[in-house]
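>> received
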Amino acid sequence: MSIEKTILSSLIHNENYARKCIPFLKEEYFKGHTERRVFNLIDSFVKKYNTFPTCQVLLLESESQKDHTEQSYKETEEYIQALNNEEVKEKWLVDETEKFCQDQA
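>> returned
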């Protein structure tokens, strides 16, 4: 699993990590179109509801967007469904996320 996918997965499965790190993450830090779309779905949800979405909520939010093709939607859906709840050491992940943000900035 890539660091990008680990970050996105942890944003929806580990609220403590997510609250620490989401303020420092930006759309442009994610290289792929699908990763950017998923980050934007998460970020928009957090800004609106001040809580973190589940995979199911992300799927529904993605489906309701009209600004993507059927292929793009399928790729996003598959990506979201692959965001599993693997346990990752939070301290390590925070350090890696900080490094990721610095490298991308």
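>> The chain has six helices and no strands.
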